[in-house]
Specification:
The protein is an alpha+beta fold. It contains 14 helices and 9 strands.
């Protein structure tokens, strides 16, 4: 239920003063982003008699929408901890700046008369500074810029579609002149059609960012991220029933696989053992993350659940994310069609989460020398 629904219920059934106070505190803690959106309406009324209310309208609009978007990502990305945003306006003679405080990014910015520009600028600063912060230590400039642009595009399309044109004019279009950035954004677009941009690509980059390396940037990591993007693009472009070119992605830092469970005859003959054997073979290849994907039909979900129940007791993999149903555009007969898919992530509980210099020298460098 949203804030409006709660208020309607209060008016309909009544509530005691103490309960109303406690409810107000609970709403403030759980519906902060939605309250900020209502605050925009309030300040628009105040603006009629107080011109300075314009700044309150813009800051509440930015904070409410950006914070709501980042919170929604927590449902798609394991280990993702949302960072809030707060807008502060600088006066003439003061310099714009950004800094973190109390798990939020404070953006001190100068107000522009074009409020769409204010929203776009603040959102781009936030995405650049507060998303995939750990992974960005190790990837290339073009990889960082392309990810920021694509995540921003998703934010604007979801939260405020009417300013997408402003974003394209100020940020997106100029960067498309950089060939490598444009190429990566095009690949993300294909991956996102299969609805795998956040739950797999960004998820794997989040895991990558948690690992501590012996130096800040390594050409091997940059190459590996490009290979991961290609791996996911191949999946997104596959025809229904077509075998993947590769069963898994076996990088030095990212090791994952997509297991598609969808073939009707295999469900009917209860070929659970075949899937268990395949997933066991992945763990023997030191694959850390196995993404189980299949149609979201009731019988297929039951079949996937049965397979997972048989895998987990072995102790090699455990369910790491809540199963989710999502819409994806898949290829069939050369055309894309929208379907409901089901996904969950199985992760090796013994996966190395942090690399130090000693680990890197013992396990990683020998692979680099033989590469």
């Amino acid at each position: 239920m949203n804030v409006a629904g709660i208020l309607i219920a209060i008016l309909k059934y009544g509530i005691s003063p103490i309960a109303l106070i406690l409810l107000g505190i609970w709403i403030a803690l759980h519906y902060q982003e939605e309250l900020q959106k209502y605050a925009v309406c309030f300040w628009k009324i105040v603006r009629i008699v107080w011109k300075k209310a314009e700044k309150k309208i813009v800051s509440n609009d930015i904070e409410g929408r950006v914070n709501a978007f980042t919170k929604s990502l927590k449902k798609e990305i394991a280990n993702f901890e949302p960072v809030g945003v707060q807008i502060q306006w600088v006066e003439e003679g003061q310099s714009p700046s950004e800094f973190f405080s109390d798990n939020r990014l404070i953006i001190r910015m100068r107000e522009h008369q074009n409020q769409n520009k204010n929203f776009v600028y603040a959102s781009m600063v936030f995405i650049s500074k507060a998303t995939l912060t750990k992974a960005k230590r190790y990837i290339s400039k073009t990889q960082k810029e392309s990810l920021d642009l694509f995540i921003a595009k998703k934010l604007f399309e979801k939260e405020k579609p009417r300013i997408v044109d402003q974003f394209f004019e100020d940020f997106f279009s100029p960067k498309m002149d950089v060939e490598k950035v444009a190429e990566l954004v095009e690949k993300y677009t294909v991956i996102d059609k299969a609805a795998l941009f956040f739950p797999i690509l960004v998820q794997e980059l989040t895991f990558l960012g948690e690992k501590v390396f012996w130096k800040k940037r390594d050409a091997q990591i940059i190459t590996e991220v490009n290979r991961l993007v290609d791996f996911l693009e191949d999946y997104a472009n596959r025809e229904v029933g077509q075998e993947m070119p590769s069963k898994y992605f076996d990088g030095l830092y990212c090791r994952c696989s997509i297991v598609i469970i969808s073939k009707y005859y295999r469900r009917e003959s209860r070929h659970i053992g075949m899937y268990i054997e395949h997933i066991d073979s992945l763990t023997s290849q030191a694959i850390e993350n196995v993404y189980i994907i299949g149609p979201a039909s009731k019988d297929n979900i039951q079949f996937i659940t049965e397979i997972v129940r048989n895998i987990e007791p072995r102790g090699l993999l455990e369910t790491y994310t809540e199963p989710r149903v999502y819409k994806a555009e898949i290829k069939s007969g050369g055309k894309r069609k929208t379907v409901d898919n089901y996904m969950l992530l199985l992760r090796n509980p013994d996966a190395v989460r942090y690399f130090d210099e000693e680990y890197h020298k013992e396990f990683i460098e020998p692979f680099l020398k033989n590469d």
